[in-house]
């Protein structure tokens, strides 16, 4: 339940704070005092979008904060799923900065607006003056009947099955589109795949070919250079190796008389060995080196093929050609095996449709079974609200195809006179009748939804006298099991509250105060008689308050 609400810099509110009663809280005030502004601030706290007009002073942030008692609500799983620390007393905060940026917090931890909204939906049910219009929403009517029927778990099963069915339908449509496009591209893909497969591409092949071609194309020059080197190294009397060996031998002999000569001989020996190794390697390469015109032509033709394929397919190298070959092959395989995938998906879809149909039938049975009790409870409340001749029926009509909540269309048929044929309540009922029907629905649903707090914003519009008193009794009875906040203009309803707040406007600022017992008598007398409070009004106020 909502323990405390604080508002700063919102619309006409500079700053206010109110502590709420755990049962029935009445809010009254003159038209234009700012009751709807207070409702807007609470909506903002619960995750409503900022319409850009939140701040009273554009230089300061708007801040709305609510302290909630979560004990016994079973919200621990929600907190865990959203990575939040659970606390029995939890503070929700919404801030709108001067730049228009929205910030939301749960126990001082930043959260997304969607998380705040989901938590808010579990804490407070707001019935605004315009919510009577939801009776025209089939989604609302279906949800109301499902709440009474206890279809929550069955609806969860149905939602999962319906989502799978829709996903399979989308998949099947995509497969059929791809198959149709594939049939147009099949011959082209087959040709490209066969051409690239016939090329027998290898990763890194082009670099190897280019390297070997460079050798073959320069084989004569390379051979001449090798011959010159070998002659320079191996000539019998003038070769470098012979000359260096002779010098090494001479230095070795001198080493006994001149130690440095021995060091030079050793270093020279290493040079001689290196040159001998070069000579052996050049000799071996010379023997392997062969111009081989046939090999040269074969490699050149292979390189031309690779380059032409790269140009045709706009590929940078044979690696990209290999990737294209695999892509074309995969697309061709998908076309070839597309009919199999379509058949498999069609079979899965038939199975999913059967599951959806079976669960929809269970939902229909549960709704049909719950409808009489639903009608009876609504009618019972409407009789207490002065509508004894009312006809109220739940009509279930089959949909052509299953929808998100089953295969039923749900209508609430209504007539204020049992002699007249009932019609859709949203079209037949007057404003006052709609208010009473909505109160009956809210009273029925609130007990089963087990919301901790419900807020009525002038749900008593269009009623007065004895009916207003009965409406107040119903709202008071609701507050025995949950917290109720009721914005009202009826003294009969206002007198039922455990706590009575008055919203006022002074010097352009909206404020709110909690009334004492004597102040309540004066306020209700004012509601009864207008601006000029009479003794009779005061006496009537005392009667209403049981004083």
Radius of gyration: 45 Å
Strand order of the largest sheet: 2-1-4-5-6-7
Report the biggest beta sheet as strand number plus sense, adding barrel if it closes: 6 strands, antiparallel
Q: What structural category characterises the helix and strand content?
A: alpha/beta
Q: What form results from the Cα inertia axes? A: elongated
Helical fraction equals 55-70%
Low-confidence stretches: none
Percentage of β-strand residues: 15-25%
Counting DSSP H or I runs of 4 or more residues, the number of helices is 18
- Topology, number of strands: 15
Average pLDDT score: 86
What is the rounded distance between the termini?
29 Å
